[in-house]
Amino acid sequence: MSGSTSVTKGARARAREEVTAAIKDEARRQLAAEGAAKLSLRAVARELGMVSSALYRYFPSRDDLLTALIIDAYDSIGAAAEAAHAGVSGQEPVRRWTTVCEAVRVWALAHPHEYALIYGSPVPGYRAPESTVRAAARVGQLLVDIVRDAHRGRGIAVQPLPGGLRTEGERLAADLAPDLPPAAATAMVAAWAQLFGLVGFEVFGQFNRVVEDREAFFSHAVTQLARGVGLLPQS
């Protein structure tokens, strides 16, 4: 009897996973067609041939579905960056840094609508919950780890902070990377913002009719970011 019950529960769990995946896939299709602001549980249910009340058993609200999609997107870009880094983990920090940055760009160009969901305009009325933080931190944490390894090894050379920024730098270091100097932690935050700004400009078309060789441009730009966080000598 217990074996039969276990099989039944396993089948139900698999069925739930399949329906959940189908709901997310349809929601992603709607994101691509209409944008996150117009995502509708009723529309998703209609396209899947479900009644709305059945879909609510999987995602009680639009925000719950958005949160699941956001976590999936952050985990996907994080996994892509981590997989790329694993292939160069024993190499020089600057190579590891540029490899991670390039993986972020490749993923974003392959998944523009999911990139827009996590790094584009905020969705009106939606506030991301705490449950998104771990996934959102994966790429940033990987970059911090690279700088930390360099700091523990041969050391890093970053520009000192001006007096007016020292308190903020100390706070950033305490919150994000306690074992890095405040100047390095501050440079990391700036580099993180610039990385996703570079990628966003390309994904959202701001480089159109401006930058032609975007791959070479990006490679040069992220190498300069590596210099800014101390992985290369300051010029």
TrEMBL record:
UniProtKB keywords: DNA-binding, Transcription, Transcription regulation
Keyword Transcription belongs to the record: yes
InterPro entries assigned to the protein according to its UniProt record, in alphabetical order: Homeodomain-like_sf (IPR009057), HTH-type_TetR-like_transc_reg (IPR050109), HTH_TetR (IPR001647), MT1864/Rv1816-like_C (IPR025996), Tet_transcr_reg_TetR-rel_C_sf (IPR036271)
Domain HTH tetR-type: 17-77
Protein name (database record): Transcriptional regulator, TetR family
Signal peptide as annotated in the record: none
MF terms in GO: DNA-binding transcription factor activity; transcription cis-regulatory region binding
DNA-binding region of this protein: 40-59
PANTHER family (alphabetical): HTH-TYPE TRANSCRIPTIONAL REGULATOR RUTR, HTH-TYPE TRANSCRIPTIONAL REGULATOR RV1816
